[in-house]
Amino acid sequence: MAKVVIFDSGVGGLSIFSELVRLMPEASVVYASDNAAYPYGDKSERYLKTRVKACLDTLVQYHQPDMVVVACNTASTVVLPVLRAHFSIPVVGVVPAIKTAAQVTNNGVIGLLATPGTVTRVYTDDLIIRFAKHCDVIKVGSRVLVDLAEAKLRSQTVDLSRLKQELLPFEQAPVRPDTIVLGCTHFPLLLSELQQISPSIRWVDSGSAIARRVRTLLEQQKKLKPEHAGIYQAMFTANTTSVTQLKPYLFQLGFSALSILPIDEAFTVFSEPMAINAVTVS
């Protein structure tokens, strides 16, 4: 049976998880959240390279997956070359869907809504030069949307006024973008609210494309077995109140077990994974 590790600093990667299991219900998934170091968006590149590699070393050794998906735009734009050189299994990253946006825009103006780190990275500028050179690109970095998405999955009401405030740079532009890239995996979790505020905008993310890429690679490895149903586990690097608050949503998504794999700031695992009130699926 195919097994995939999806890795993120928070819960944004659950948007990738949903696309992946919709396309491949036969694949087993370990969703690993490095919530001890959340958020990644304000971390240095040096820190991220060390931290992400240390976490994935532990996860790959423990779970022996067929593939890793780095479901974090910030980490992907920094760490992918390091991970691909280090691991023998495929490592799939998530980058802003700028190419897609540039292909579907009608007025030639697109927006990029991502974390402050992602919008300022050279990697992002290179994507714009390669795929959207003919477009005007308005970049907006937001930390607020990450927090709103995290809160939403813990059953808290999304503050639409705060969300609207974050979109003002697009609304106040000389020419309003008709297409906006959701350049952080957290942001598709707020799609219904974004559509409510700006129904005429075409919102683009890379979730479905990533799922198709994972499926192609697993088919090449002949790992997919349609007769099997996937098993979904969630792991966190810190046992916090927010993890407990997240449990009902994880249950809805079909996760059968939650556990803690503590990894301290020195990037060392100091205990075996601890089960935390495993979710029972009836």
From TrEMBL:
<dbReference type="GO" id="GO:0009252">
    <property type="term" value="P:peptidoglycan biosynthetic process"/>
</dbReference>
<comment type="function">
    <text>Provides the (R)-glutamate required for cell wall biosynthesis.</text>
</comment>
<dbReference type="InterPro" id="IPR004391">
    <property type="entry name" value="Glu_race"/>
</dbReference>
<dbReference type="InterPro" id="IPR018187">
    <property type="entry name" value="Asp/Glu_racemase_AS_1"/>
</dbReference>
<dbReference type="GO" id="GO:0008360">
    <property type="term" value="P:regulation of cell shape"/>
</dbReference>
<keyword id="KW-0413">Isomerase</keyword>
<feature type="binding site">
    <location>
        <begin position="73"/>
        <end position="74"/>
    </location>
    <ligand>
        <name>substrate</name>
    </ligand>
</feature>
<feature type="binding site">
    <location>
        <begin position="8"/>
        <end position="9"/>
    </location>
    <ligand>
        <name>substrate</name>
    </ligand>
</feature>
<dbReference type="InterPro" id="IPR033134">
    <property type="entry name" value="Asp/Glu_racemase_AS_2"/>
</dbReference>
<dbReference type="InterPro" id="IPR015942">
    <property type="entry name" value="Asp/Glu/hydantoin_racemase"/>
</dbReference>
<keyword id="KW-0133">Cell shape</keyword>
<dbReference type="GO" id="GO:0071555">
    <property type="term" value="P:cell wall organization"/>
</dbReference>
<feature type="active site" description="Proton donor/acceptor">
    <location>
        <position position="184"/>
    </location>
</feature>
<dbReference type="GO" id="GO:0008881">
    <property type="term" value="F:glutamate racemase activity"/>
</dbReference>
<feature type="binding site">
    <location>
        <begin position="40"/>
        <end position="41"/>
    </location>
    <ligand>
        <name>substrate</name>
    </ligand>
</feature>
<comment type="pathway">
    <text>Cell wall biogenesis; peptidoglycan biosynthesis.</text>
</comment>
<feature type="active site" description="Proton donor/acceptor">
    <location>
        <position position="72"/>
    </location>
</feature>
<dbReference type="Pfam" id="PF01177">
    <property type="entry name" value="Asp_Glu_race"/>
</dbReference>
<dbReference type="InterPro" id="IPR001920">
    <property type="entry name" value="Asp/Glu_race"/>
</dbReference>
<keyword id="KW-0961">Cell wall biogenesis/degradation</keyword>
<comment type="similarity">
    <text>Belongs to the aspartate/glutamate racemases family.</text>
</comment>
<feature type="binding site">
    <location>
        <begin position="185"/>
        <end position="186"/>
    </location>
    <ligand>
        <name>substrate</name>
    </ligand>
</feature>
<protein>
    <recommendedName>
        <fullName>Glutamate racemase</fullName>
        <ecNumber>5.1.1.3</ecNumber>
    </recommendedName>
</protein>
<keyword id="KW-0573">Peptidoglycan synthesis</keyword>
